Recover the amino acids of this structure.
């Protein structure tokens, strides 16, 4: 360990300390090299003092000075210093669209077994229908949307890491697909590209537990941007059911539930819905006729923990709901979308959906959640407005082979056209 004299801090020790710190900290700023070289050169011209516990002769100092100057002279740009300190990062791992289809698994496809459709592996949160996770050494990318996302990047961040690591990129993530790949988190020392553009060297990422880091997705897509507005946190899953007034879940119904649930989540999370709910001049009451606290009602909708969807088949029954169970007749589900130049007829399907959601929130038939203001006025008005102005992820029915009517803003503003 270097010692310092009682009366002054040795300038040679400062130079040596800074020179060592430059490599320990792996600083990229090229100004450090000429600074050290100049300091050491000046130091070499100073007369040595005999009362100093540790000395360096002029040859050593001049040698280090020349080394520092040579490092500076070899630099073509600022990034060379980074690469010398951190190592050259490997090329970003990219998964092509073809590789995704070959290695991935399609979900909710016709012919899929009921057990697969209703498995917890198919469940997702409505605010994260496109999500990434790491389990048992596997990275999983899940797309519960009927929408293809292009150029999806996976990033990693963790406390005290000043940058965000770019783990991998997917050329295209097809709708209703998921894929499992070997973890990109490596043992030992590894170099990764980062958001800042500078290589980042980290050690033993594979040893981290999932609660020690966060995986993030980015994608330049308008639908992806809509998903980021969702405040609703409900976990949705398909239910098998199959007895009494419940039929068995089908792939077709599962696809419609997955899409309509995301549309409803975007609507419930919107400022338009909140304003309509808070400013509604009529009554919104519970079964006892008492006015419901509207802020509390909105919070209960957004914080509904889970919904398990089912298919209703009982004669004369439009829907069933209560607890976490919510179901409609399968033939109603396409009513959420525009299709084939016909007017959107969403009022009935929205009435049934909100009616059953009201039961799931604990309200009965005497409340405004099951009949009246919520299912018949507030929700249909907001939903239709947002559909007309393309403010929801799905406007046109994504499952019909042919759709030729995409309502425009001008049509939506024309009171003579029923959309």
């Amino acid at each position: 360990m270097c010692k310092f004299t009682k009366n002054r801090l040795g300038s040679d020790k400062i130079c040596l300390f800074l020179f060592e710190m430059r490599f320990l900290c792996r600083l990229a700023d090229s100004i450090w090299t000429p600074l050290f070289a100049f300091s050491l050169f000046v130091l070499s011209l100073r007369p040595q003092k005999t009362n100093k516990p540790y000395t360096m002769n002029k040859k050593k100092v001049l040698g280090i000075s020349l080394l520092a100057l040579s490092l500076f002279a070899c630099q073509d740009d600022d990034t060379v210093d980074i690469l010398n300190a951190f190592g050259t990062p490997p090329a970003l791992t990219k998964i092509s669209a073809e590789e995704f289809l070959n290695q991935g698994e399609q979900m909710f496809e016709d012919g899929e077994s009921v057990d697969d459709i209703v498995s917890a592996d198919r469940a997702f949160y409505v605010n994260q229908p496109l999500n990434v996770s790491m389990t048992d050494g596997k990275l999983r990318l899940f797309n519960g949307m009927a929408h293809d996302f292009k150029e999806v990047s996976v990033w990693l961040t963790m406390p005290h890491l000043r940058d965000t690591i770019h783990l991998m990129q997917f050329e295209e993530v097809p709708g209703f697909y998921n894929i499992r790949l070997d973890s990109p988190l490596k043992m030992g020392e590894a170099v990764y590209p980062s958001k800042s553009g500078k290589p980042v060297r980290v050690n033993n990422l594979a040893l981290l537990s999932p609660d020690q880091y966060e995986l993030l997705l980015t994608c330049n897509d308008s639908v992806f941007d809509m998903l980021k507005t969702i405040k609703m946190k409900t976990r949705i899953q398909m239910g098998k059911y199959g007895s009494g007034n419940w039929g068995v879940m089908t792939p077709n119904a599962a696809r419609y539930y997955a899409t309509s649930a995301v549309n409803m989540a975007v609507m419930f999370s919107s400022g338009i819905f909140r304003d309509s709910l808070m400013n509604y001049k009529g009554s919104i009451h519970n079964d006892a006729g008492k006015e419901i606290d509207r802020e509390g009602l909105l919070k209960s909708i957004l914080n509904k923990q889970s919904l398990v969807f089912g298919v209703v088949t009982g004669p004369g029954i439009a829907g069933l709901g209560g607890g976490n169970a919510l179901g409609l007749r399968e033939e109603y589900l396409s009513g959420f979308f525009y299709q084939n130049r016909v007017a959107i007829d969403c009022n009935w399907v929205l009435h049934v959906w909100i009616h059953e959601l009201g039961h799931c929130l604990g309200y009965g038939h005497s409340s405004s959640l099951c009949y009246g203001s919520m299912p018949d006025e507030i929700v249909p008005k907001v939903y239709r407005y947002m559909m007309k102005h393309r403010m929801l992820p799905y406007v046109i029915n994504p499952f019909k082979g042919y759709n030729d009517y995409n309502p425009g803003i001008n049509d939506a503003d024309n009171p003579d056209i029923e959309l």
Observations:
- The longest strand covers residues 149-157.
